[in-house]
Specification:
Chain lengths: ~290, ~290
């Protein structure tokens, strides 16, 4: 990892309807550093400022105070370069499939790269690559996006952002409304994409289980401010505070905490069924066969 | 108890154009008892939402019959009474709120039903109290959180006093607390008011709170029973693109490895109790 954070905010503040009697602060004094290549989970209650923060990362909003730096440079320093910022930080909003509009999947995915002014052969390469990234075969290229299932449409929409090959990929609740298999597929696809490209990824989610399973660090927003920005273990060690904020801890962590309360000396930084299974199994077998 | 909503031999297809039709349900049967709380699970595109729309005549079957409290949804003259009987809550709260003040929004339904003004006042206040939104009755809906908006939408439905509520993924866009609050409200409506609930969800933990779980797959019913029984079939559910609650999954894995866990476990608390019996206190420590 290189030392300069890929994205940084300095005292970023955003006030809706500033100067009127109905001022509402959506972001207050947010200073965070996103490291090159990391996968950051972003959690927070509805209205906590998650989405407003994301909109600042690709210059859809401009802070009423503070700065956003991409690769060390203030993104608003040169307004003529704002378009380039939007290509470098790709944001996939909630329910992106509602924004599909082209006649074919290939044309829809090509929309971003075409806007970037890339030559046709490069566009073709990227469309192909993006389809692979989201696990759809080439047969999909000429289909109408409207003939696809909900989960497939979602993947096509994400492919459209990936095809711009952004340095930072931001996904706002990419799994919302999908069935369990659809959720698992999209999450795996994000993990694989990040592994393959080294891209920095920000994932906004309401699922504590998902964020625990996939993130390197978790950014917790609460009432327009940063509550925590730390490793998964350190964030989920704050069970009570998270619950006060309208959030929660993963279910498997809840199980381990309840065993702790019953006097068992078990680790609490476990998040998946597999992790807990391994631990419980070992303790049970260890107990049955006597002390080791 | 008697069948309150009945889908009998229902077939339904969406028509893309004159030549193309997408069949969703074929000879589908489902019967929901009065006062029941039924969760409906199924992969995206399995026909869950179509079933929901058939229940209050937003859609009518191309063949077969849907009866709501004995009324055929195909008969035009039943429409008003069916809509009074069965109401719906959808996924996105922003698409369901029509007024600029919370209490006006709740009053919208009963006003349209022609309820007397004094009675509307009473119902609106009561409904807002029931969902825990009375203190925010003068707020602007757009300033509320997702969970609060969804509870306002539910209050608007309670104020119409329907016998049945169909909720189509009402928590898909909510944060953990919003999900819990909506779930608590729905349980209360069923338990305290006897309202029949049909609850469509992708969250297995929510389905675990229902009395009955119906699992749909490709337009058919794959499993149907109590959550305790249905979620024991983890292999069947996973093959259908679904899942089981994490506590159930862990208990099943441990049991397959030979661990003597008893009963059909659904919740973290139940599993924690069972593990207490399984694990020796001193496990992991060296005994002298």
């Amino acid at each position: 990892m290189n030392d300069t954070p890929i994205l940084r905010t300095e005292n970023l503040t955003y006030i809706y309807q500033k100067g009127t009697s109905s001022e509402v602060a959506a972001l207050q004094d947010v200073s965070v550093e996103i490291r090159q290549g990391e996968l950051v989970g972003v959690i927070g209650h509805t209205g906590s400022g998650k989405s407003t923060l994301i909109e600042h990362f690709n210059a859809l909003k401009k802070g009423t105070a503070g700065r956003v730096l991409l690769d060390g440079n203030d993104i608003w320093a040169d307004k003529s370069k704002i378009r380039a910022v939007r290509f470098r930080v790709g944001v996939c909003f909630q329910y992106p499939e509602y924004q599909l509009f082209e006649e074919t999947v290939a044309k829809d995915i090509a929309f971003g790269p075409r806007n970037m002014g890339l030559p046709q052969d490069e566009i073709d390469r990227r469309v192909k690559e993006a389809l692979t990234n989201v696990g759809l075969s080439e047969d999909y290229a000429e289909k109408s996006p409207f003939d696809l299932s909900g989960g497939e449409k979602r993947r096509v929409a994400i492919a459209g952002i990936m095809a711009m090959e952004p340095q930072v990929l931001v996904l706002d609740e990419p799994c919302a409304g999908l069935d369990p298999r659809g959720r698992a597929t999209v999450l795996q696809m994000i993990a694989d994409y990040r592994q393959k490209t080294g891209c920095t990824v920000l994932l906004v989610t309401h699922s504590m289980e998902e964020v625990a399973a996939i993130a390197d660090r978790i950014l917790v927003m609460n009432q327009s401010r940063v509550a925590f920005f730390d490793t998964v273990d350190n964030v989920f060690a704050h069970a009570e505070e998270l619950q006060t904020m309208g959030l929660d801890i993963p279910q498997m962590t809840q199980l381990m905490l309840s065993l702790r309360e019953k006097g068992y000396d078990v680790p609490v930084n476990l998040y998946t069924v597999q992790q807990v299974y391994d631990t419980i199994f070992a303790r049970w077998k260890g107990g049955v066969h006597g002390a080791q | 108890m008697s069948a309150f909503i009945e889908l009998k031999d229902v077939s339904f297809a969406y028509e893309l154009d004159e030549t193309q039709r997408v069949p969703v349900l074929r000879h589908f049967n489902l019967s929901v008892e009065k006062g029941d709380f039924v969760a409906v699970l199924g992969h995206n595109g399995c026909g869950k939402s179509t079933v929901a729309k058939l229940c209050n005549a937003i859609e009518v079957p191309q063949s077969g019959t849907v009866l709501v409290n004995g009324m055929d949804t195909k008969e035009e003259e039943n429409l008003l009474e069916i809509r009074r009987t069965v109401d719906m809550v959808f996924q996105n709260p922003d698409n369901q709120i029509v007024a600029t003040i919370v209490e006006d929004d709740v009053a919208f339904g009963p006003e349209n039903l022609g309820v007397e003004p004094q009675e509307i006042r009473r119902r609106v206040d009561q409904a807002l109290k029931d969902v825990g939104m009375y203190d925010l009755r003068f707020s602007e809906p757009h300033k509320l959180s997702g969970g609060q908006k969804q509870r306002v939408a539910i209050a608007g439905i309670i104020a119409m006093q329907p016998a049945c509520i169909v909720l189509d993924e009402p928590t898909a866009m909510l944060d953990p607390r919003g999900r819990k609050d909506v779930m608590k409200t729905v349980r209360m409506l069923n338990r305290d008011f006897g309202i029949t609930v049909i609850y469509i969800t992708h969250y297995m933990d929510e389905a675990a709170e229902a009395n009955r779980v119906v699992v749909m797959h490709k337009g058919d019913i794959l499993l149907d029973g109590t959550p305790r029984d249905v979620f024991q079939q983890d292999d069947v559910l996973k093959k259908a693109g679904l899942d089981v609650p994490q506590a159930t999954e862990l208990s099943l894995q441990l049991r397959r490895a030979g661990a003597p866990l008893s009963g059909k476990i659904l919740t973290i608390d139940e599993l924690s109790l069972q593990l207490e019996a399984l694990l020796p206190r001193s496990a992991g420590r060296v005994e002298s």
